[in-house]
Amino acid sequence: MRVSQATEWLEMSSNYSIKSDLAELAQMSDKLREYILGAALYMPVSGGYVRGGGTPQLTIGAFLLRRRRLSLLQDELDAKQRGLLDATLKQHDDIQREWRLHYEQKLEQEVHSRLKLMLAFFRECSESPRDCAAAYPVEAMRRTIVQEIMLAMDEFDYDQRELSPKVQHCDAGLRRYLRPTVFIWSPLLEPVYPRAIFWWLYARPEAN
Q: Residue 44 forms beta bridges with which residues?
């Protein structure tokens, strides 16, 4: 498992920390302009405390993942933390407007990359249900980030016509292997992710 995948997986655990989420969002915001103008699709973010000792990978999807959680849970933040959140989100919005085309290109590249990685997961599920179940937490995170990107493309009025069929094809694959269950992430996050939109967070593969 790549470091970035391991770090993302930790975001799902019962040890979710809004304080750590905010610190990571701020770190990502500081490098967002450099990232959008650069060639790398996954860019390490160094410095600060990171859960599990890993280094979070900066992508726009990873930023948007935290943006949703922090925006909807901001009542849990104190005044200083809310000020940091507001400044961080404003910085993101300014960069998105200034570098609109670059931002869109990064989103498209990230969706293609994450969906391509999920194809390997489907092959694993067809060959080994046990391995499929063990690998699912990373795939659930990956699919959630793709959803955040698709929602952002709608928010910023980007063209989704090329990507939407590919996401739908991915979902058809997921539905073959998933069975309904309770919310699979921290209960603190359940209000952030409604079942109707994030249905894969209320499902998992059977191990046998």
A: 57
CA distance 194 to 57: 26
The C-alpha atoms of residue 45 and residue 163 are separated, in whole angstroms, by 27
Structure tokens at 92: 């993101």
* Angle, alpha carbons 129-166-185 (nearest 5°): 50
Q: 161 and 187 in contact (C-beta within 8 Å)? A: no
Q: Output the six-digit token pair for 116.
A: 């391509």
Instruction: Name residue 131's beta-bridge partners.
Output: none
In sequence order, which ranges of the chain are alpha helices (DSSP H)? 3-10, 18-37, 60-72, 79-98, 100-127, 129-155, 163-177
pLDDT at 6: 46
Encode burial over 19-51: b for 16+ CB neighbours within 10 A, e otherwise. ebbbbbbbbbbebbbebbeeeebebebeeeebb
Parts of the chain with a pLDDT under 70: 1-14, 46-55, 208
Predicted local confidence at residue 12, as pLDDT: 55
Give the three-state DSSP class for 40.
coil
pLDDT of 207: 77
What was the pLDDT predicted at 14?
60
pLDDT (tens digit, 9 = 90+) per residue, 21-37?
Answer: 999 999 999 999 999 99
At residue 158, φ and ψ (nearest 5 deg) are -95, 155
- Ramachandran sector of residue 157 (left: φ over 0; alpha: ψ -120 to 50; beta: rest): left
CB atoms within 10 A of CB 181: 12
